[in-house]
Amino acid sequence: MNVIAKWKSEYEKRRLERLPRYTPTTTVFRGKTVKIGDACTYLEGIREIFENGIYEYQSPEKRPLILDCGANIGLATIYFKTMYANARIVAFEPDPSIFDALEFNITSFDFRDVQLQQAAVWIENGTVDFLPEGGFSGRIERGGTGGLPVPAVRLRDWLDEPVDFLKIDIEGAEFDVVQDCADRLANVERMFIEYHSECDRPQRFDELLAIVRRAGFRYQIHETYVAPKPFLERPPMMNMDLQLNVFCFREAFA
Question: b vs e for 88-99, b when ≥16 Cβ sit within 10 Å of the residue's Cβ?
Fold first, then answer.
């Protein structure tokens, strides 16, 4: 990156950092115009996905199938297509306004073989109540307090062929969905699960890991949101008191 390009990049980053939360705007990423609904979410996504490379993996497949559940504005999909230009990707995003940005961004990059589904990933087909947040944290409402009705698709129905990478970032619905898919996870080569512990629900992380283990995966666990002093206080974040990233893979024990 030359000096002028670097200056422009740093100037744009500062502009985005100063924007109030949930202010729609556009920016340029890798030479393409992209829509964003929340600059904070966008910058964190760039850091996590492109700078830290949390989804980086190597595949022998020439045309891998990747399922992006909780695609948001499409940063992970863009990353996967950057790694594997011939990949087939299905990207699911239920929030209507965020889906609009997702659709714009995938079109901006002129990607082929990317199927966009404006739907929540769930345990049955139909409709679910959804609570939009404007950033990463929109979620299915299961407490009976209402929400925005959005289409829902059963993830299990999409696992009847080999899946090279399954990304599940669905803000609290992951246990139900993984449990529903348990006997089809044999078709999945790699899986990323963002686990959320909801303050008003029992913790089921041990059960989630048991399903992952029975499906033949090994795993690594990374902290995302934890309380620094949990014996003293456990401040919630979007009704979550714990968030973990689970990386599931099939390499044999060495």
Answer: bbbbbbbbeebb
pLDDT digits (tens, 9 = 90+) for 152-164: 999 999 999 999 9
Q: What is the pTM of this model?
A: 0.94
Amino acid identity, residue 233?
A: E
Distance CA 4, CA 166 (A): 39
61 burial type by CB count under 10 A (0-12 exposed, 13-18 middle, 19+ buried): middle
What's the first-to-final CA gap in the chain, in angstroms? 41
pLDDT in tens, 80-90: 999 999 999 99
Question: Class of 59-249 per CATH?
Answer: alpha beta
Within the chain, strands assigned E span 25-29, 32-36, 65-69, 88-92, 114-117, 120-122, 126-131, 139-140, 148-154, 165-168, 191-198, 218-225, 240-249
Residue 36, burial from CB neighbour count under 10 angstroms (0-12, 13-18, 19+): buried
How many residues belong to the chain? Answer: 254
| Structure tokens belonging to residue 23 | 């202010």
Enumerate helices (H) and strands (E) in the chain, giving the number of each.
6, 13
